[in-house]
Amino acid sequence: MKYSFIDQKGTFTVQHPQPYNLYFPLTDRNGKLLSSISPDLAGDIKKDNEHFLTPPASIEDIRSNLLCRREFFIKTNKKLLRLSEPAEDTITAGLLYHTITKKAAGLVIEITNFIPHDIPCEVMQLKVTNTSKKPMLIRPTSFIPLYGRAEKNLRDHRHVSSLLNRVELEKYGIVLKPTMIFDEQGHKENTSFYFVLGYEDKTIAPKGQFPTLEYFYGEGDILSPDAVVKNISCARKKLPCFDGKEACAAFRFRDRTLPPHSTATYCLIMGIEEQRKNIETIFQQLNTPEKIEKCLTETTQYWHTSLAAVDFDFKDKNFTNWLRWVKLQPTLRKLFGCSFLPHFDYGKGGRGWRDLWQDALALSFTEPEKAKDLIVSNFRGVRLDGSNATIITKEGGFIADRNKISRVWMDHGVWPYLTLCSYIHRNADINLLLEETTYFRDHQLKRAKEIDTGFSQKDFLLRTQDNRTYTGSILEHVLIQNLVQFFNVGEHNIIRLENADWNDGLDMAAQKGESVAFSFMYAHNLADLCLLLEKLKQETKSVFLLKELAILLDCSNEPIHYSRYEEKQARLERYFEKTKIISGEKIEITLEALIHDLREKSNHLNQWLQEKEWLAEGFFNGYYDNKGNRVEGRARGTVTMLLPSQVFAIMSGVAGNEHIRQIWRAIKRYLYDTRTGGFRLNTDIKSTYMDFGRAFGFSYGDKENGACFNHMVVMLAYALYKRGFIKEGFEVINSIYRMARAPKACLYPGIPEYFNTEGRGLYSYLTGSASWYMYTLFEEIVGIKFVFGDLVIEPKLIAANFSGRAIEVRCRLKNKAITVIFEGGKKKSGVYLIKNVRLNDQSVTTGTNRCLIRKEVLERITNEEILVHVYLD
Fold first, then answer.
1. How far apart are CA 228 and CA 241, in angstroms?
2. Sign (positive/negative) of CA torsion 629, 630, 632, 635?
3. What was the pLDDT predicted at 836?
4. pLDDT at 239
5. In terms of DSSP bridges, do strands 542-546 and 586-590 run parallel, antiparallel, or are they unpaired?
């Protein structure tokens, strides 16, 4: 499958698309309605996991379940056309609309689906044109299967829950309102209205309807329903036989004769509403083809505008347009979560903890004015034991776990700091560290090792012993997450793996497993936080922290031997016991003392990891399994290597330059896939490995077992660029683009979660890879950084980055638009160096391939637009 870009706005076309694995997202700007659509009109329409307008569609349903398709029948005097059936098809798609153009039986049929950016409904507009030389009689019938309940009812009382269905026939369509929500834990009255409305041309209502599958099919089926084949009568009013049946919105439009080259237009409007009056309001906004065309134009413009905060132009039409879709992906994941496209293996809705912080990472440079509130709000999910709620709802509330399992991920303390740090530098907002917010409290204690059976709070807020809501500074939240983990070690003095780290598939080593991979990152955070605290010292000399936190700040308070894991475990247990119930009292700690404590911990962890986990094979061990055995290295005649272990060793700074050179050679030897040109997540362990995780029960080359898993691959690229290994970094990041554009990937533009052994991309759109790709491109490759508000330009560009002589990057800093133009010379190899820089036509002093423009200089510029010209040689 190959697509082609047809403009500079990301619009692409596909000729004769194959439906397997292909789907396209549709949503409004607030994610109130979420849809997917495939080349044969398959997909589903839903509000959340409890409210599906159409039947839930998995990736296999997309290909094979005919009841998961939007359908339209056109019966001519010679043929019956079913529009989900492949014909001579062309897809044209843009931000965010999907058009299929079909040629069949003397007709050209254009089907456009989109969700207006400001109206939560899906619009489906069909334009049927007679391209023959003779008049053509057509009998049109639309068909939208209605489901009207929760996803779980697919296997939980499917038929019984259909008995609750009640349909109402309207002039322009049908409204389904089940009497109640079926739930054996407690049935509830249903308040939701599921509707489909339709009209033709200038708001001409359908002749009538077929409101149930039974009535529509007759003795036929979805391929040849009696309503169409036998032309049975449509209903114009509700009949008793319509109650308690599986519903559908099938509309019969009038028979008409289309003269040559004339067009008939049919419009369907579909959605879910809690207020009946809102359905009429929506219809009035979209009840003519002209209104729909205007709404489509406004919607595409909205999505283009929303992506304009950061923009790249590499003078390469394909790459620049592809980047527009990558830029959109963090927004799509914010709206869809991980669960509402056909690859919904993450299941039940909501975004996970890592998703929150990686989406906020992207927002920190695309929409920095929104990022601050999001960051502060997200910190409300932290518990005093350093763990956190793992799911955030659309309403902004926190849930302990989507599956009601008491468990924790050991990497979750890493990500908030990385995002917070990026935001602070971008906005020179060091005082954000002192802002206060609440903590999450539920039944889990001691990182899920103990359950508070008496917990009964409804608001999940941490309270003191006298029932006051406790708040602490953002700094305090960050310290708790990172200090707790420093002490939370196993028998090898490495931070415990617990229920998994970034790789959710490493979930079967909760007792004795340890993660060297993320111990690297905790060492990094502890050291890097000291840089922020040095800056904070310019504002204040001390901070107030939770009294009990002093237990973990041991350098000035009962120091312990960090090389003795038993002492660390005992100190952490003492902290856990003291924080089951807190007084809320705070103590004053000088920043000097705090910095000293954090540096001592970071230095110890850094040295320990270098000395104990470097392997003779030329890379780091990253894990210990549930028997306490080292996972990586040579054993039984084979070498085991995991990519995350090396990525975080490099990214954290623990690995020295010589380490990195050896690691890169090992990655190329053991993890590079010569067939696809990608980098695998791990070598083939050839075992189900029950002492490590479910990942190794997966087929090798899929998901977390040896796939080219793009999130980790792009972080490898980021780490290499960050450490100055530019040629290697380019090879890695370019592999993602090259694989995503390959016909065998079978993808629309964007980055999938992973590529399998065949090079096919799976799990489109909803992946943290996109945030990290944009972050790497912006901060490391073109090298536009902010350091406490100062603009730093430090490009790491090579000849392969240039298609023309220039690269343009646009971004915003508060109320100013900044354009940075990099002009390259005729360099054939090596890294470009800065020759000179001009700021609004004024020369700027530069260092060795680094240009610093102070924030005071930027603030003095009165223009709303700032132009920086960077001349490279």
1. 20
2. negative
3. 93
4. 84
5. antiparallel
CA–CA distances in Å: residue 421 to residues 134, 478, 629: 68, 11, 35
Token pair recorded at residue 234: 């449509």
Q: The dihedral of CA 129, 131, 132, 134: what is its sign?
A: positive
**CA atoms lying within 13 Å on the CB side of residue 575:** 28
DSSP state of 780: I
pLDDT (0 to 100) of residue 846 = 82
User: Which amino acid, one-letter code, is at 730?
Assistant: F
Residue 826 in tokens: 């005729």
Quickly list DSSP for 326-341.
HHHHHHHHHHHTTTSS
Structure tokens at 552: 């973990």
The residue among 93, 146, 98, 94 whose CA lies nearest residue 124 is 98
pLDDT of 395 reads 61
**CA–CA separation, 777 vs 786, rounded Å?**
14
Beta pairing, strands 263-273 & 121-130? antiparallel
Can you give the pLDDT at residue 315?
94
93: three-class secondary structure by DSSP: strand
- C-alpha–C-alpha distance, residues 158 and 154, integer Å: 5
User: What tokens does 699 get?
Assistant: 């087929």
In single-letter form, the type of residue at position 393 comes to T
Torsion (CA) 215, 221, 223, 228 in degrees, nearest 10? -30
Burial grade of 109 (CB within 10 A; 0-12, 13-18, 19 or more): buried
**CA 496 to CA 409: how far, in whole Å?**
10
Which amino acid would we find at residue 37?
I
Rounded-to-integer distance, Cα 144 and Cα 123, Å:
12
Angle at 542 between CA 537 and CA 543, to 5 degrees: 110
User: In 3-state terms, what secondary structure has residue 461?
Assistant: strand
User: Cα 683 to chain center, whole Å?
Assistant: 26
Running along the chain, 873 residues long, what does each successive block of 10 average in pLDDT?
A: 94 88 94 96 94 94 91 93 91 98 95 98 98 96 96 89 95 96 88 98 95 95 94 88 94 96 97 97 98 98 93 96 95 86 70 82 75 91 94 70 78 96 93 97 94 89 96 98 98 97 96 98 98 97 98 93 98 98 96 98 98 98 98 93 98 98 98 97 96 96 96 98 98 98 95 96 92 95 95 96 94 89 84 94 86 93 92 92
Both tokens of 703, joined, read 């998901």
Which amino acid appears at position 465 of this protein?
Q
| Contact present, 497 and 510 (Cβ < 8 Å) | yes
Which residue in this structure is represented by tokens 């905060």?
309
Token readout for 517 is 């991979």
Q: What is the largest CA-CA distance in the chain?
A: 94
Give dist(CA 42, CA 29) in Å, integer: 22
